[in-house]
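pls read this protein.

:::
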Amino acid sequence: MARWYIIHAYSGFENKVREAILAEAERKGLAQLVEAVEVPTETITEVKRGKKVQVERKFMPGYVLAKLILNDDIYHLVKNTAKVTGFLGTNNKPQPISEKEAQRYFGAREAAAAEPSTQVMVDYEIGDSVKVNAGPFASFNGVVEELDFDKQRVKVSVSIFGRATPVELAFEEVELVK
């Protein structure tokens, strides 16, 4: 019976590890023992250069989930895969996780796919200099005073006629000055 295992891999190489495990299993004729190999991801919205962008981000960086029928051949196949440091478990023994626990990781991904995450990331923070690129204050420079992620608004202090004036704008209406 196939069970879910968590494989620890070098961060940033999760997809290469996934492909390498599937290819090596196919090459060695062990594909029937490898039911699934997944890299849990989530979709988030980021604001970069004043534009909203949907970005897929790894939910568990450095880890790959695999549904395997674990025997010595599969164990050695995974352990000898490049960029794999081993299985999660105790005493160098792979510890399977429950189907319910595995679905929790994938359920988060499916929920994010059904409804894109409201989590928004911006490339500026409080105290950074930004340039307004839309609206009546376009081309004004200012300093970020407040970030409101719930309303997706930023409060920027711009200089109008020599006086600092706070202006509230949408995240995508400003961009970081480099």
In short: The first helix runs from residue 14 to 27. DSSP finds three helices and 14 strands in the chain.
